[in-house]
Amino acid sequence: MNNSTYYDYIFKVLLLGDSSVGKTCFLLRYSDDTFVENHISTIGLDYRLKMINLADNKIVKMQIWDTAGQDRFRAITKNYYKGAHGIILMFDVTSNLSFNNIKNWLLQIKENTSDKIQIVLVGNKIDAINRRAVSKEEAEKLAREYSLKYFETSAKENTNVQETFSFLTKEIYTIAEKNSINSNATLGVNKKKNSCCK
C-alpha cells in the first residue's frame, strides 16, 4: 500500500521559533529518529511527511514544515502560514532571547492565521542543565497567559518529542472531526477518504 495515497486527513504543521533553538533536530528526531549535534541552519523551508495511525483507525498524513528562524527569511515563511492547522512554537531554554521573542512570534501567528489554529509551546534543549537560562515556571506562566499547552523537550535525548506531536495531532484531529460532523465539507482540513472504504 502506498502511504502517500491512503489517509483520512492531511494536517499541515509548522515549526516556528528563532534560529538555533533546535527546530530541525526536533523534526528529524520525530520523523527519522536521528540526531545531529551540529546541524546547519535551515535555509528558507524544509519539510517531512509522517503517517500516523490514530486509535480509532483513522490515518493522518502530517506535513511538517521546518522554517528558518533568521529575520531575513520571515517574509518567505509568512506565505506558508496559509492552510496550517497547527504550530509548534519553540524556544531554547538556554537562551533568554529566544524565549523573549516568543511574544513576537505569537503576534506574527495572530496576524497570519485564524483563531482555530492549534499552538503548542516548546522549551527545547532541557538536556543542557548547566546552561539553562529560562526556568520551567517562567515558561509555564507564559503558556498560561496565552492558553497554550507547554512541553519541555530534548531532541538530543528524545525527551517529549513524540508526546508533543501526539498532543498536537490529537488536538487538530478533534477539531477536524467536529467539522466533519457539522458540515458536508471539512472546514480548514483537507480530507481524503481511503478509497477502499468508499
Q: What spatial form do the alpha-carbon principal axes imply?
A: globular
Q: What structural class should be given to the helix and strand makeup?
A: alpha/beta
Reported CATH architecture: 3-Layer(aba) Sandwich
Top-tier CATH class: Alpha Beta
The CATH superfamily is P-loop containing nucleotide triphosphate hydrolases
Structural commentary:
This protein has 198 residues and is of the alpha/beta class. It has a single domain (9-182), classed as P-loop containing nucleotide triphosphate hydrolases (Rossmann fold). The protein has six helices and seven strands, in the order E-H-E-E-H-E-H-H-E-H-E-H-E. The chain has helices spanning 23-32, 74-78, 96-100, 102-112, 136-145, 161-182, and strands spanning 9-17, 45-53, 59-67, 86-92, 118-124, 149-152, 190-191. Strands 1, 2, 3, 4, 5, 6 and 7 form a seven-stranded mixed beta sheet that branches. The longest helix is centred in the last third of the chain and has 22 residues, at 161-182. The two termini are 17 Å apart. Mean pLDDT is 83; it is low at 183-198.
Indicate the topology.
Blueprint: E1 9-17, H1 23-32, E2 45-53, E3 59-67, H2 74-78, E4 86-92, H3 96-100, H4 102-112, E5 118-124, H5 136-145, E6 149-152, H6 161-182, E7 190-191
Parallel strand pairs: 1-3, 1-4, 4-5, 5-6
Antiparallel strand pairs: 1-7, 2-3
In short:
The chain is α/β, with parallel strands linked by helices. The protein is built from six helices and seven strands. Mean pLDDT is 83; it is low at 183-198.
